[in-house]
Amino acid sequence: MQLTDLSMLELAEKLAAGQVSSVEATRACLERIQRVDSTIRAFLRVDEKGALAAAEASDARRRAGTPASALDGVPVGLKDLFLTEGVETTAGSRVLEGFVPPMDATVVRLLREAGLPLLGKLNLDEFAMGSSNESSAYFPTHNPWDVTRTPGGSSGGSAAAVAAREVYGALGTDTGGSIRQPAAFTNTVGLKPTYGRVSRYGVIAYASSLDQPGPMTRTVADAAALLQVLARHDPLDSTSAPVKTPDYSAELEGGVRGLKLGVPREYFAEGMDPEVEAAVRGALREYERLGATLVDVSLPHTRYALATYYLIAPAEASSNLARYDGVRYGLRAKDAKGLKELYALTRERGFGAEAKRRIMLGTYALSAGYYDAYYLRAQKVRTLIREDFTRAFQQVDALVAPISPVAPFKLGEKVNDPLSMYLTDVYTLPCNLAGVPGLSVPCGFTKAGLPVGLQVLGRAFDEALLLRIARAFEREHDFFRRLAPV
Amino acid sequence: MALTLEQVRHVATLARLALTPEEEQRMATQLSAVLDAVEQLQSLDVGAVEPTSHATLADSLLREDVTRPSLSPEQVLANAPAKVGTSFAVPKIIE
């Protein structure tokens, strides 16, 4: 076994026992990146110097017997949507090329304080808008399980880097499934916490009422450990929830005996890949065998979630992306005559096709004469979707469902057909609209060897139960131990 | 709902995007398809439903109104594409 094949907690154990140093683990990651990233293309930039300096500091703390946290010295990567002081941050966009943040996002600060060396910035769909990583302005990332396929998006770089063992874990963000879908596509674990559980301060905004950062790891226990570092109230983020952080690892092995797990019938719609459905159904039977009761539940407004999301998210995006105007940071159209032309030309040259599409859609939905028919109506349907979840959680402890109706698709397959791409998010979006937590755990493979993920959804702030449910399955099946062939 | 090129140009002006003629054409086709797909929301009766703008918090939480250290003007201006002294520079807009 290679050093980079270890999970975060396995490495942490070796670091604590003095069997390996953080510098050795960090160098192993850097060598792995050197070897495989020309094929996978997960990294937009590697911060070798910064990571090694952090690793040396971590080793010094270990020698002094004062580790900063249980994960002190474990190297990780960051989606390039998180501000990192002194390290270029682009959100996968030309419009932010050359932007060097003067500060860290809160979660980046928390990782530094916990002693985790940060290996660099990972590729993403531009401003987190996409489901395949192909809308990055720089290059598409490839799926380590089949390099002709997408790793999913928008946190596809984070997922691919974890699956390719270039990093031990990573941070992603999930606005409509952007942590869970790439996790499912790469045989990794992805957790979208409850909206408000993890600070959004310093995370470049796409759709502010939906965005939520979270961990992407190889095991459920790693996700619990990483969430432990990230989950806390942040006075710098007015949407950060002032709630207590539980001990996520403490209840992990509690099993599912006696739990009621809801199976939302609307999440098994026509058109689903039969192999994906078979893997998910197999996981549901496993939960029954382990002592859970499966309950048929209905989330009747699920069919409206896609339309609701594709009005609300672009509306918020059109507002958030108004700040990229060529004045304060990033690209500037130097040949513009006058201020209006400066804005229009800078944005025309700086944004890619998907970002422009969503800005246009959002601007339209918010414009005079259309606001009530589109944006306000979508907000009201969002209420109905939330109420569906509230009713379901009166009957059951959590929901279990597929993540994506399809297995990882080919690069280029959907990129010119936005609607077809949007449809792949159909089972992940409702969770964000309702603000509840959701998790993806590996649950099988197709005959072609492509990973399939199982989604677990829970009540607000009930991440501990989601992790416990996912761990119960992981303990019985070692899909997560299979290594991508890179 | 089919968007006309004229509507696309109007929205592009509002969004401060200088689209090329090809982009305008493509945007009309693609946005029309998305708007057709979201049309299904019109079939729901939402007359008595309150809108949700944020998922979990009813109100924004405010910090205490006290002065704290912030970024220096130099840090704020460090990424500016053009600056004059301690100001962001923009093209002249008055004669």
UniProtKB/TrEMBL annotation, chain B:
Pfam family membership, one: GatC
UniProt-listed SUPFAM superfamilies: Glu-tRNAGln amidotransferase C subunit
EC number: 6.3.5.-
Alphabetical UniProt keywords: ATP-binding, Ligase, Nucleotide-binding, Protein biosynthesis, Transferase
GO molecular function: asparaginyl-tRNA synthase (glutamine-hydrolyzing) activity; ATP binding; glutaminyl-tRNA synthase (glutamine-hydrolyzing) activity; transferase activity
InterPro entries in alphabetical order: Asp/Glu-ADT_sf_sub_c, GatC
Entry superkingdom: Bacteria
Gene3D superfamilies cross-referenced by the UniProt entry: Glu-tRNAGln amidotransferase C subunit, N-terminal domain
Role this protein plays: Allows the formation of correctly charged Asn-tRNA(Asn) or Gln-tRNA(Gln) through the transamidation of misacylated Asp-tRNA(Asn) or Glu-tRNA(Gln) in organisms which lack either or both of asparaginyl-tRNA or glutaminyl-tRNA synthetases. The reaction takes place in the presence of glutamine and ATP through an activated phospho-Asp-tRNA(Asn) or phospho-Glu-tRNA(Gln).
Family the UniProt entry places it in: Belongs to the GatC family.
Protein's name in the database: Aspartyl/glutamyl-tRNA(Asn/Gln) amidotransferase subunit C
Organism annotation: Myxococcus stipitatus (strain DSM 14675 / JCM 12634 / Mx s8)
Taxonomic lineage of the native organism: Bacteria, Pseudomonadati, Myxococcota, Myxococcia, Myxococcales
Name of the gene this protein is made from: gatC
